[in-house]
Amino acid sequence: MFRKIAVLYCLCCGIFCIAGCEQERPLKVSLEKRVVLEKEAIFPSSKALRFAIGGMVVPRQGFNYYIDFLNYVERKTGLKFSVFGEDSYAKVNQLLRSGDVDAAFVCSGPYVDGKKEFGLELIAMPVVYGEPVYYSYVIVAADSPIKDLNGLRGKVFAFTDPLSNTGKIVPTYMLGQMNESPETFFSKYIYTDTHDASIKAVADKKVDGASVDSLIWDYLKKTQPELTAKTKIILKSPPYGSPPLVVRPGLSPQIKDKLREVFLNAHLDAEGKELLKRMMMDRFAPGDDKNYDSIREIKEWLEKKGSE
Predict the structure, then answer these.
(1) Quick check: pTM over 0.85?
(2) Which residues of 247-275 are buried (b: 16+ CB within 10 A; e: fewer)?
C-alpha cells in the first residue's frame, strides 16, 4: 500500500506546474486510504505507520528519493508505512495533532508551533553541508535590476505558505525591522504553496521576487540548473534549525526509538549513505530543540509588534 500511494503521489506531482500567478494545487493522496494504527501499540506486521511528507519541504523532483529512503527505513525497522503528500503546513500539523498522521517531515516554523500548541516531538534534523541549518533566500529574476530587499518595494512578491519559516515568517520579520509589513511594502503578494513553485514564478517573471528555502533552491541548482539560472539571490538570512523529522505526541516510545536509531545511523550504512546522497543530505543529527529558539524569538517579536 505504501508503494502504491507513493507512486500515485509522484505521478500527480509531475503533471502540475504554475501558470501565471494562479497555481493549481497538486492532487493530494486521500487520507481515506490510510491504514488505521492502534494507538500506543508496538507495530504489528499488518499495521502501518502513517507518514506525511510535506510537498513544501521536499522538492517534488526529489520526492521519489524520500520514498526510497522510507522503504529503507521499513526494511531496517520492520515497521510498515502508509505515506501521504500534503501541500499545507497547517494541514500537516492538524493531522499530527489529531493522530491521523504519526510522523512527518515538517517545516521549522510549524514544528515550533506544534511543539508549543500540542507537544509535537522532534526526532531528527537533516544535516546538509555539514550543519543542521538552512536559510531563507530572497530571489529575483537573473536579469532584474533589483539588488536588495528595498528594491522590491511596490513590487509583486511570492510567499510560500502563511506558516512557512523561510517562505513567510523570516521575510516578514525583515520587513518588520524596516517598520514595514507585506501589506505596506509590496503592491501585491501571493502564496504559491511550494518553494519549487515560488522559484518557477520568479524564473518565469510572474512575480518580481520571492522568499524560498535555501535547501530547495540549492537542490534545484544541482538538478535543474536551467531553472535556478533564471534567478539570483539578493539576500541570505541568518541560519535557522533545519526542517525536522517529527512524531505526534503519544506515539509508542519503542517506535520512536526504532525511527531514531535508523535515521541517525543511516550514514554509517552503505545503502543508507547512498540514499542520503541522492536526497543531498550528509546525515541526520539528533533533534535539538534549542536550534529553533531563534525562530521562536522572531515569532514572538512579530506577535508583539502586531499587538502594538
Answers:
(1) no
(2) bbeebbeebeebbbebbbebbeeeebeeb
Read off the DSSP letter of residue 7: H
Q: How many domains does the chain have?
A: 2
Residue 305 lies in a domain: no
User: Is 142 contained in some domain?
Assistant: yes
The whole domain housing 170 covers 136-237
Q: How far is CA 44 from CA 99, 160, 248, 298, in A?
A: 18, 38, 19, 43
The pLDDT tens digits of the residues spanning 118-173 come to 999 999 999 999 999 999 999 999 999 999 999 999 999 999 999 999 999 999 99
Q: Is residue 308 one of the residues assigned to a domain?
A: no
pLDDT in tens, 248-305: 999 999 999 999 999 999 999 999 999 999 989 999 999 899 999 999 999 999 998 8
CA–CA gap between residue 268 and residue 257 (Å, rounded) = 17
